Amino acid sequence: MAVRIRLKRIGKVKRPFYRIVVADSRTKRDGKVIEQVGKYHPVQNPSFIEIDSPRAQYWLSVGAKPTQQALALLKLTGDWARFCGEENPVSRVEQPVSIEAGKSAPKSCRRSAPVAAGEATPTVSDRPDLPSVSDAPQDVPEDVRGQA
Fold first, then answer.
1. What global pTM score does this model have?
2. What is the pLDDT of residues 64-97, one digit of tens each?
3. Phi, psi torsion values for 89, nearest 5 degrees
4. Residue pLDDT, tens place only, 25-52
5. Pairwise CA distance, residues 22 & 38, whole Å
6. If we measure between CA atoms, which residue out of 67, 41, 47, 66 comes closest to residue 56?
7. In this structure, how many other beta carbons lie within 10 angstroms of the beta carbon of residue 52?
8. Residue 42 buriedness (CB in 10 A; 0-12 / 13-18 / 19+)
9. 61-73 confidence digits (pLDDT tens)
C-alpha cells in the first residue's frame, strides 16, 4: 500500500481549510484517511499551520511520502529537517522532538559531498573561452541610445 501525507480540503467555497492527513495514494482527495496529523488555514493572515510532529515523524519513518504541498508545510514547521537528521532545523513553530542518533537519513535527504577546503571553485576569470567585460564595444550608435 502506497501511503501519502497530503492535504484534505474542507471548508466553504473560497474559504479553504485543509487537514494534513495520511492516506492511501489511491483514495480520493477527500476520501477515507488513515490518520489526521495536522491542520492548515491558508486564508488567515498569517497562515495557521499545526502539525503533530511525533505522528508526522512516525509516518515519514515508515515510508509515507508527502505530496509537494505537504512537503512545503513540513519544511516550514521543521519536521522535514528533523526527519532528514539535521541537528538544528529551522522552524517557525517550535515542537520538541527527539531523534535517535543511530538512524541514518534516507537517500532523498542526503546532501552531496561538500567541496574540499583545498579545492577552489572556478571563477569567470579562470575560463579563457568567455569574453571579459573590458572586451565589450564601448561606442553605441545614437539611434539605439535614445530608445528605451
1. 0.57
2. 899 999 999 998 888 888 888 876 666 555 444 4
3. -70, 145
4. 888 887 888 999 999 998 888 888 899 9
5. 10
6. 66
7. 17
8. middle
9. 999 899 999 999 9
CATH number at residue 16: 3.30.1320.10
Model pLDDT, residue 21: 93
Angle at 34 between CA 29 and CA 39, to 5 degrees: 65
Query: Is residue 112 domain-resident?
Result: no
Q: Report yes or no on 5 lying in a domain.
A: yes
Model pLDDT for residues 109-134, shown as the tens digit of each residue: 555 555 555 555 555 555 566 555 56
CA 26 to each of CA 16, 18, 23, 60: distance values in angstroms, whole numbers, following the listed order: 23, 19, 8, 18
Largest interatomic CA distance in the chain:
70
Question: Could you tell me if 6 and 66 are in contact, meaning their C-beta atoms sit under 8 angstroms apart?
Answer: yes
Q: Residue 144 has which C-alpha cell?
A: 539605439
Say how far apart CA 130 and CA 148 lie, in whole Å.
Answer: 28
User: What cell was used for 31?
Assistant: 476520501
pLDDT value of position 37: 93
Copy the grid coordinates of residue 85: 537528521
